[in-house]
Design a protein that fits this description.
By secondary structure, this protein is α/β, with parallel strands linked by helices. It is about 50% helix and about 15% strand. It contains 21 helices and 16 strands. A hairpin with an 8-residue loop joins β11 and β12. α2 packs parallel to α3 and α13 crosses α15. The C terminus is likely disordered.
């Protein structure tokens, strides 16, 4: 329910508006004096202020200025007598959203107030959207704590504020676009478009049109003028993914656009100035392509003003655990599932698997496992068959100890589960039992059976002695 503050020195108007607005479903607070109103504004949150211009002691204009200084996001509607319209116009210049003239029509006033509340709602949604976008495309989506990733985070923070062209390299699925989006979201261009295009997904003729636009009639099917990505991203960032797939002709035009900061639409002779930052990415060895004369050396050096490589997942295995937790939480939330942990055996498979598809492949595996898992633990049975039939896994199965004892193996698994659940529960045995789906008495039995020591009694005793 929206909350409105109504300020007027006539009690009859306050009583009337309180009844009218509350029938509309709005919460209403009334105030007879300007000093009290200023106190309310500083202490409470309101969605709209409706204020009389002429008041004793402090005028409505002073209240308006106070709101503009302290809480400028609150829309203010001024109430005025016919002879004070000039002051109302002045109030609009200061920042008031609108004004109504006394004696006003109630239906007209409700429309003006509804409009003000809608404006406030749209502003709040816009702020929230910007926060969500910053969270989505900032470092929050780049999960990893390894030394290599920390170095990349530090580099991104340093280069985000520049306008330098950047080349991001790395295997497919390592998160090159996430890095590009993080750079954009931390840069002065963050409020302007981030436009991404996969250069390897389109044939040469269509790619040129997508990048630079075209004019009507320039080719079959060009029924109207069209802006290219460089124009759409004006004052923003263009992300050229798979830049190594571009043809020699497109490379020439890209080089010219980078050097001259001007483009030509397909079929046009006129040039269009563009102000964009270029971030390119590739999973190919561009230096090798240069030697093979498949990529222009001058374009490479123009793109590679600042370059960095995102390492494959197999080279930063310490990031595996936080990535698994991140994707597990993400897809449990999306699917409404209650999968809490990964079995130790699954983690063993993850750690020995080469991850040719890198983080993208890991995300797909977790999404699939959450979707088909019917317990609170992701088990081996929920993994794709190709992961279990990889050379690494076959070698693991062939090297099983001939003296393998199933009972001992199951006991080891049980102990690992208990330890993992105990950590998950923050040291609480009752929560540990709940996570494991067993009774507290059963948990105590297993702790004694395996001689597990958690020091829980000592912690409880200390709490009692030092409340």
């Amino acid at each position: 329910m929206e909350k409105i503050l109504v300020v007027d020195d006539e009690k009859s108007i306050l009583d009337l508006l309180k009844v009218v607005f509350e029938k509309e479903g709005w919460r209403v607070k009334t105030c007879l004096s300007a000093p009290k109103a200023l106190e309310f504004i500083d202490k409470e949150d309101f969605d709209l202020l409706l204020c009389d211009i002429k008041m004793p002691q402090t005028s409505g204009m002073e209240i308006l200025k106070h709101v503009q200084d302290r809480k400028p996001d609150i829309p203010v509607i001024m109430m005025t007598a016919y002879g004070s319209i000039k002051q109302s116009v002045e109030a609009l210049k200061i920042g008031a959203l609108d004004y109504v003239v006394k004696p006003f029509e109630i239906d007209e006033l409700k429309i003006v107030v509804s409009h003000g509340l809608e404006q406030r709602k749209l502003k709040q949604e816009n702020i929230l959207l910007k926060r969500v976008l910053k969270k989505s495309y900032g470092f929050e989506n780049m999960v990893g704590k390894s030394k290599k990733m920390v170095e990349i985070y530090n580099l991104i923070e340093k280069i985000a504020g520049t306008d330098s062209t950047i080349l991001v390299t790395g295997e497919s699925g390592t998160g090159k676009e996430l890095a590009a989006r993080a750079i954009h979201s931390l840069s002065p261009r963050r409020d302007n478009p981030f436009v991404s295009i996969n250069c390897g997904a389109l044939p040469e003729s269509l790619l040129e049109s997508e990048l630079f636009g075209h004019v009507k009639g320039s080719f079959t099917g060009a029924i109207a003028n069209k802006e290219g990505m460089f124009e759409v991203a004006q004052r923003g960032t263009v992300f050229l993914d798979e830049i190594g797939e571009t043809s020699p002709l497109t490379q020439v035009k890209l080089l010219r656009a980078l050097q001259e900061k001007r483009i030509k639409r397909v079929g046009s002779t006129g040039e269009i100035p563009v102000d964009v930052r270029i971030i390119a990415a590739t999973n190919q060895d561009l230096k090798k392509k240069i030697r093979e004369r498949a990529f222009r050396e001058d374009l490479f050096y123009r793109l590679n003003i600042i370059g960095f490589e995102i390492p494959p997942l197999r080279e930063r295995i310490e990031d595996l655990s936080p990535l698994v937790s991140h994707f597990l939480e993400k897809y449990c939330s999306q699917m409404g599932k209650n999968v809490k942990v990964i079995s130790p055996k699954v983690m063993e498979i993850f750690e020995s698997y080469p991850w040719p598809g890198n983080i993208r492949e890991l995300e797909n595996v977790i999404e699939r496992a959450v979707a088909i898992e019917d317990s609170e633990t992701i088990r081996v049975s929920s993994l794709p068959k190709e992961m279990l039939s990889s050379p690494q896994q076959e070698e693991y199965l062939l090297n099983i100890n001939p003296e393998f004892n199933l009972s001992t193996y199951l006991d080891e698994i049980s102990q690992n589960y208990i330890k993992q659940a105990h950590l998950e529960a923050g040291g609480s045995l009752k929560k540990t039992a709940s996570i494991l789906g067993i009774s507290y008495r059963s948990l105590r039995y297993l702790i004694d059976k395996y001689s597990l020591k958690f020091d829980s009694k000592k912690k409880q005793t200390r709490r009692k002695q030092n409340p």
